[in-house]
TrEMBL record:
Keyword Protein biosynthesis listed: no
GO biological process per UniProt: CTP biosynthetic process; GTP biosynthetic process; UTP biosynthetic process
Superkingdom of origin: Eukaryota
Listed EC numbers: 2.7.4.6
Species annotation: Cyanidium caldarium (Red alga)
UniProt keyword annotations, A-Z: Kinase, Transferase
Family: Belongs to the NDK family.
Annotated catalytic residues: 126
Molecular-function GO terms, alphabetical: nucleoside diphosphate kinase activity
Cofactor: Mg(2+)
Binding residues for ATP: 20, 68, 96, 102, 113, 123
Protein's recorded name: nucleoside-diphosphate kinase
Residue ranges annotated for the Nucleoside diphosphate kinase-like domain, each copy included: 12-149
Enzyme class: transferase
Amino acid sequence: RPCRALPLTCRVERTFTAIKPDAVNRGLIGEIITRFERKGYKLVGLKLVRPTQPLAETHYAELASKPFYPSLVQFLCSGPVVAMCWEGKDVVRTARKMLGATNPLESDPSTIRGAYAIDVGRNVVHSSDAVSTAEREIALWFRPEELVEWAPTSLQWIYE
Ligand code: GDP
Ligand code: MG
């Protein structure tokens, strides 16, 4: 009996994943969302955002000293971004594996970046690199009321 209630109540991770302007312009929104849906993760936040420069700067603040930082910030502000929050067991680490290496030429071709990207500055998708980073990024991109609590009917078929 408890195993049926467990997936609904057990504490699970959340991560922040973003479809970058290159992927939005290339019509890859559906492809990328589909990968997370089919994996079994639960979407709890979703919106189309045109990031301001301060938002992009804060998002990538840890990279402020890098030579590519100005162009990275400019790129993120250059068009719409699909901001998402995904929830599920081990989602932070697993989403990073689903994305592949930062440099798409080093990514396994079965990953999102490996399948859809070539240049490191046009690598189509972002996802938080740690649970603590995810908490910061979710709070940066979403207001609390924009995150939806719900229980998909599929949960018992995804978690044992
Ligand atoms: P990620 O966590 O895999 O996205 O990689 P990082 O946090 O290290 O870098 C953030 C983003 O900056 C990456 O997704 C790339 O788009 C970009 N980036 C990282 N390293 C480089 C680089 O050496 N050159 C350029 N042009 N862009 C980079
Ligand atoms: Mg990163």
